[in-house]
Amino acid sequence: MASEKSIFLSVLNDTRSRSLIIQFLLLAGIVLGFSWIVENTITNLAAQNKSVGFGFLSQTAGFNIQTTLGTWMFDYEVGRSTYLDVYYIGIVNTFVVAFFGVLAATVIGFAFGIMRLSHNFVIRSFATVYVEVLRNIPLLLQMFFWYFAVLSALPDKRGKIEIIPDIIGINITGLYIPSAHPQDGFMATVIALIVAAVLTFFINRWARLRQQATGQIFPAFWVGAGLLVGLPLIVFLVTGRPLTWVIPEFLETGPILRRGYQDGGILVIPEMMAIWLALSLYTAAFIAEIVRAGIQAVNKGQTEASSALGLRRGPILRLVIIPQAMRIIIPPLTSQYLNLTKNSSLAVAIAYPELVSIFAGTALNQVGKEIEMIFMMMSVYLTFSIATAMFMNWFNARAKLVER
Amino acid sequence: MAQSQSQAQSQAQSQAQSGKSAYKGYVRTKDARVLAAPPSEAGLSGWLYHNIFESMSNFSSPAAAIGSLLMAVFTVLIAWFGISITWSLVDFAFISAVWSDPDGLKREACWTVDQGGQLPSGWHGACWPFVAAKMKFVMYGAYDNDQLWRVNVTGIIGIIALGWTMIETLPYRRLAGIFLLTAYPVLATFLLTGGNFDISYEDLVTVIVVGLALITAGRLSDRGFLGAFLAQISALFGVSGWLLIAYAVVAGLLGADAGLRHIPTNDWGGLLVTLVVAVTGIVAALPLGIVLALGRRSQMPIARILSTIFIEFWRGVPLITVLFMASVMLPLFLPEGVNFDNLLRALVGVMLFSAAYMAEVVRGGLQAIDSGQFEGADAVGLSYWQSMRLIILPQALTHVIPGIVNTFIGLFKDTTLVSIIGLFDLLGAMQAAINDVAWASPVQAHTGYLFIAALFFVFCFGMSRYSIYTENKLSRDRKH
How many CB atoms lie within 10 A of CB A257? Predict the structure, then answer.
């Protein structure tokens, strides 16, 4: 009896077996908790006469979606397109906003980050005020501001503000820009572009290897830029410019109800513009701080040493400071891109047809499949997050300081 | 110094007078005149040169000259842009603004002649009477007018306790902090809801009895009266006993009837909801975040994997989807009959979400701690929880105070999202106020957003300054 007890105690006091016991209890607790939730859900669903399944995806969706890239890509039509199409449209629209937001936020953010380090008081303080104000006001409020306070002041359907006369104009229904329609021979230009890109890649490699071996510098950047622009351009001109532009048509005369923009060109809806503006300006403030911190983190000795070697200010920045700053900047920058993508879900508040708005909003209200639809919505964001995290790990491994 | 100089002078003079001295080189007999710094280095002109004109005064080469000119143009453009924005803001908010509405005109007070009002055509200014009229709604929502003192008292107690904790010269700061994290939430819940929760006191007596029994059992087994096996897990008895007692006390207080009217959370709104969601989110997220952070750094693979999955899941999805999930799916997950109100659902969502972020902040603090501290704690024979409670966490949490404040700022801003699931937070209440036809005017939205933006800016900017201040103080403390 006594020995049995002591064996039991020694098992309990052994770190390894104790940790096994604790982990087993933890796992059991989690499994029990989950099964409790699942059981409750099944009971509740049964009480509401609902079933679980993804069959609803092939049902046709009976609501209108504003014309966007998504609806155009999937040829959306009420009563013919399915809820799966709605899902895809939501994903496409989310990424359209995220893509253009990331582009603009990066440009604006880097500009303001560098401006914050300027020796010029006017520029420096302007950037500081921008960053502090934009960072400390909620994104949703900024979105409302752009949508309800700025864009709602645009001229009505029958008027317009011309940005480029007769080509690009804007009114309350959105921004109208010309659309490009490739004709038969356009493929040649695309192929030329690919060829130029491949050539540039190999020229760069060759130039780098030659510089390492002989020290001779080859103007790889200019040659590459020339190739990338010149080759497709020549092919484009030689094949007879196989690209037609459709300019949005604006009727100024005729019956009053028919006036305004007609078909043709691309329409960027005001919701999209409001979200894009808010997202990129807000995220840019954070990116500016990351850029500033990244540049400041590079030791001053690096600049001084480069000057001592006889480099001028331009090459010092390009060859010494920026490569080191980028190593610090890129990981938080990626997480800002991720934040921007996640924040694009706020678009639901002003009814831009992105994933949360049309799939977890309108479609969910019609179909009522809460579990499946929210799961499908979340998995999109999760996939994107995991992909970003994997990129970040890869980058960190690659950019890590090689230490002896 | 001056003395030795005058000595040298008198020596030189006496030598000169005696006439015997030969030329011994140049000796300065008077102090050199102190020159003023050149205008490019000191004073206003120096500041202007170094901070503005230096960047545009390099004409040594054509390229530099072009650069300088571009810089000058850019500076002028930025200055013009900045000044015109600032001016239009000041003009809108103060100079052109309508400040009062003595005749009770409502929307007509902010209408121009063209719209049927009295203001000159083309007028564009803030309509402050609109904000004044909506102030109560934007601050408290639909909370009963005669009960607003309850919110105010809660707020004032909170501010005093928080101030006490933050000002370093005051005594009993730790006590104020403990009050803020334990008794205050209960008090706030009681005051804001009015107590009177449906709680059976017979059950509570049972809970207390069980709790006391557990504590006694813990004490007894700790001294070895109940056998060697139970002595090992005596702490478990004690902790669960105290938890039960705490639960009973809180529930007993919330169930008490102090003559306060019950105000359902559906009537709450405005700044009240914003603060409740943000503060609850952070306070409740802190313990969960600490546990998750410890779990993620644990030696036990299952605990580590589970914590990592939890953290990465919530961090990988946008808050709005979490709120959707909380408002749509949470009722499905709970047993029939258990019904959460809207605010509580949002709180659960926000809490889980911010716990994940908090966990990452705390993990940063844990990683910043020297491994010698862990080893030292082990060497003195402390158990895992003892070493965490006494050695590791106090240091780690002090390290991450700025991070916690930053998370709070983020959460405070994100609270605006609850308006999407139908709660009237600060922004939601203002949005509802803006849609009020009685005040409809072209400047209504501008005024409302400006007011809310200013409010958020003051809160968030203040907190970020505090976080920077703590950060500097901590880094100063860490220097030897």
Answer: 8
